[in-house]
Amino acid sequence: MAVKKKIPMRKCVGCGEMKPKKELMRILRTESGEFIVDAAGKKNGRGAYMCRSVECFRRAARSKGLERSFKQEIPQDVYDRLEKEMGEIEKKG
Q1: Strand, coil or helix: what is 38?
Q2: Residue 93 pLDDT > 70, yes or no?
Q3: Is the pLDDT of residue 80 over 80?
Q4: Less packed terminus of the chain by CB within 10 Å, N or C?
């Protein structure tokens, strides 16, 4: 009998769908309080997952999904920078 490998699932803070972790992008808050896009998903810090689309990012910004995940307010300039980074990653992939 073959052993099935468990696929880690995460919930997108934008659309709310459960998807395999590898399909999602991780938004990270570092210990210094900086917010970055962690494409590899390996960096240390508190993370929130979302689909690799700018539309899901905008939905998360509107619904304050990221703010709920990080339990803090996020300045608009951080949203603008993250949206730009997400757009660049979406074009590559």
Answers
A1: strand
A2: no
A3: yes
A4: N
